[in-house]
Amino acid sequence: MGRAQQNAVVELLRIAPVTDQLAARFSAAGHSLYLVGGSVRDALLGRLGSDLDFTTDARPATVEAILRGWADAVWDTGIAFGTIGASKSGIQCEITTYRADRYDRVSRNPDVVFGDSIEGDLARRDFTVNAMAVQLPLRDHGRFVDPYGGMEALARRELDTPATPAESFADDPLRMLRAARFVSQLGFTVAPRVREAMVAMAGEIARITAERVGAELSKLMLGTNPRAGIELMVDTGLGGYVLPEVPAMRLEIDEHHQHKDVYTHSLTVLDQAIALERGEPDLVLRLAALLHDIGKPATRRLEPSGGVSFHHHEVVGAKMVRKRLRALRYPSQVIEDVAQLVFLHLRFHGYGGGEWTDSAVRRYVTDAGALLPRLHKLVRADCTTRNRRKAAALQRTYDDLEQRIERIRAEEDLAAVRPDLDGNEIMSLLGLKPGPDVGRAWRYLKELRLDRGPLSREEAEAELRRWAEENLSQ
């Protein structure tokens, strides 16, 4: 027995109590039940979770009737596609009637057609490693069904398609992006013919809605090796449609104007940011690391001295991030967080050898806000020089900045830098009614607080009155 089969036995035995109960109910009703697709693949890889996919010859109404009285909960949100969901003992199950769909190859939406065989159902799946099934119940030594060589492809860690790649991607262009996602998540490569089809058909991804593209991109970015997935996208031309700003970073370098390859640098920063993560993968940090320099192509200037400059690329980059992530329908908070990290990623380079005043340190912390831990990681990851002495010096300098932040934080409440007087106190002292002048006074006191640190009550009131005399009309 090979390693994959051993993995599968261990994983399948773990879920056997639920799957055997479920299979018994289907068998009693005269129907077959198979564990299928990604669940079989993950079992063979030794990474099966608690979300299981099944397929059956039973129609959805029959499936729902079989589940009633057994499952802890049943839902039919996917019934239009032949899927009924259920949960039992903490395991989520999706049971789908055999499918033999036809695609119009204009949209991605299939005409849902129920099939009559497990082999026919597997033929319509995206990749051969997802086109395997195990007949249940397991106690009867469930039959392993692999008509398209999925096991061999899994052993090679290679993505290939049951049909020709051209047919598969014409049916559903999102499968090209799923290939890049599986490269990131599972460490697979793509078969040569799959790569060729991706190159030829990259533009077909435009048929897919932005929401679905964004969802697949997020899964890719949260994988164990997103760099490999991004490289596949860029090398095949798919990246030009999904994240065109990324391949645009492959700037030409001539012998007179040398600078780092921005594209390769960004991928390295992504790798280094991931290495600094603690706990779960961080989508915001990873997107910021990949996109932090996307403003460089638009701001590139060849200097007469032979150098290259990218003045204000962080400002331009933040705007580009907002535009691209909005187009991909990302949540507004994700968009703003990534854009703010891109905007702030260069700020540290003004720190020099520690010349910042305490006021500048306060502003750095205040502008970063809740993003400060991520900004620390992004700035450290952005050091990709091969000069070990220079790299060590940069890290020591950032260590010094973090130590200063902690010292000032211990002396002041940097997490909530606010004016020394609130809005009600401002109105009372100046005799103002609610309105724009109160906001102007509040912002002035906040700037003063950032510059000088906490003020006494007397100092704050004196400064406020001085400001009012100079700025408020009498």
Molecular structure report:
By secondary structure, this protein is α+β, with helices and mostly antiparallel strands. The chain has 4 domains: 3-156, Beta Polymerase, domain 2, CATH 3.30.460; 158-242, Hydrophobic Seed Protein (Orthogonal Bundle); 275-417, no CATH class; 418-471. 53% of the residues lie in helices and 9% in strands. It has helices at 3-28, 38-45, 60-67, 118-123, 150-156, 165-171, 174-186, 192-201, 210-221, 226-236, 239-242, 262-275, 283-291, 296-299, 313-327, 332-344, 358-368, 372-381, 388-411, 423-430, 436-452, 457-471; strands at residues 33-36, 51-56, 73-75, 83-88, 91-97, 102-103, 110-111, 133-135, 144-145, 158-159, 189-190, 301-302, 308-309. The strands form 4 sheets. Strands 3-4-5-2-1-8-9 form a 7-stranded mixed β-sheet. Strands 6-7 form a two-stranded antiparallel ribbon. Helix 7 (174-186) packs antiparallel against helix 10 and helix 13 crosses helix 18.
Fraction of residues in H or I helices: 40-55%
Q: Looking at the structure, what is the overall shape?
A: elongated
Side-by-side strand order of the widest sheet: 3-4-5-2-1-8-9
> How many DSSP helices?
22
Rg over CA atoms, rounded to whole Å, is 29 Å
CATH structural fold name of the largest domain:
Beta Polymerase, domain 2
Largest sheet entry = 7 strands, mixed
| CATH hierarchy, class of the largest domain | Alpha Beta
| Number of E-state strands | 13
Q: How many discrete domains?
A: 4
How far is the N terminus from the C terminus? Answer: 90 Å
Say which CATH homologous superfamily of the largest domain is assigned.
Beta Polymerase, domain 2
